[in-house]
Specification:
InterPro entries: Beta-ketoacyl_synthase, Ketoacyl_synth_C, Ketoacyl_synth_N, PKS_Beta-ketoAc_synthase_dom, Thiolase-like. The chain is of the alpha/beta class. It has ten helices and nine strands.
Length: 348
């Protein structure tokens, strides 16, 4: 980035090749942002696995915190040089672009929704899908998030907030210390990703997990990126997700913990408040794959599903490990700038 090395979490080379092939497969896809292509590719895989057909007319809600970041920066740079906007600059950089193109690719006639609620975007998409299904307006919903934020301006914004990790070659091999509540500096690293889930109501033979609770809450803003010391929004969302379930029944919590000092500690404080009798095992994936902003919550859902399926706890290597005695009920947390928290409770 401007001749300076910056820590990021990129897609593997094999995945990049798949995205490149997808872009070349259709002339209309050549002008799309990576965030849209990530969503199309991931959605194809998910629908194929679950066996949905275009005639099912399932709904789609795939959100993004940043949207078409790379393409927007490219078009804006061209505009500054020529004083003219490219013909497709508007439709290809709008946020609604993501779900619309996924619907086009999958040929479904169901409703398409794209939204941005910062880093809790994907879990808000899950909430929306549940609401649509429970209302009887749709039988199936494809939900998730897609993010391609590895651009100079986006990274510079995080650096301006003083929350981004700084490269130090003399440190240990974990530059992002997500969930380490004793760290003395911010260590957030941006990642790119897309993740989606297929939702249906009731018991299904091919279901891999069941949603047994959901919660949400928003804090009153003190400033644009505020979160209270004890993450009041998380306390409320976790209590709502628990419902009548005893907190002691929760085996694992997958935390949002982006690797910042205040963000990680406030969520940890909230967990201690709600689970005061017995703190569940907790873990995160951001130390490994970075923070993919609006897509991150659904990646945590995927992590929960993997643990439920394989009955194996995925730990954080630099945190003292407390293995759960069982793996049955897992809570997933996500929160974005402005304190908009979501908690989802999954079970086998």
């Amino acid at each position: 980035m401007f001749d300076t090395e910056v820590l990021v979490s990129k897609l593997p080379v094999s995945a990049k090749k798949e995205i490149k092939a997808l872009r070349a497969s259709d002339s209309k896809y050549k002008s799309l942002d990576d965030s849209v292509l990530f969503a199309i590719y991931t959605s194809r895989k998910a629908v194929e696995q679950v066996g949905w057909k275009p005639s099912d007319n399932f709904g789609i809600n795939i959100g993004s915190s940043r949207g078409a970041t790379q393409l927007f920066e490219k078009h804006h740079e061209a505009f500054l040089k020529t004083n003219k906007a490219n013909t497709l600059s508007s439709p290809t950089t709008t946020l609604g672009n993501i779900s619309s193109w996924v619907a086009h690719d999958l040929q479904t006639q169901g409703p398409e929704i794209s939204h941005s609620i910062t880093c809790s975007t994907a879990l808000h998409a899950l909430l929306n899908g549940i609401a649509w299904i429970n209302s009887g307006m749709c039988d199936k919903f494809l939900v998730g998030g897609s993010e391609a934020p590895l651009t100079p301006f986006t990274i510079a914004q995080m650096q301006a907030l003083k929350i981004y990790a700084k490269e130090n070659k003399n440190e240990a091999s974990y530059p992002c210390l997500a969930l380490d509540v004793d760290k003395t500096k911010n260590t957030m690293i941006l990642g790119e990703a897309a993740s989606v889930a297929c939702l249906e109501q009731g018991e299904k033979e091919n279901a891999i997990a069941k949603i047994i609770g959901l919660g949400y809450a928003t804090e009153i803003l003190e400033h644009n990126a505020s979160l209270s010391t004890n993450a009041d929004c998380f306390q409320k969302s976790m209590v709502m997700a628990l419902g009548n379930l005893n907190p002691d029944e929760i085996d694992i919590i997958i935390t949002h913990t982006p690797g910042t000092i205040k963000g990680d500690l406030s969520e940890y404080n909230a967990i201690k408040k709600i689970f005061c009798n017995k703190i569940p095992s907790f873990t995160t994936n951001k130390w490994k794959i970075g923070h993919s902003l609006g897509a991150s919550g659904m990646l945590s859902v995927e992590m929960a599903v993997l643990m439920l399926m394989y009955q194996e706890f995925i730990s954080v290597p630099f945190i003292e490990e407390i293995k759960p005695k069982r793996i049955k009920n897992i809570m997933i947390n996500a929160v974005g700038f402005g304190g908009n928290a979501v908690s989802i409770l999954l079970s086998k």
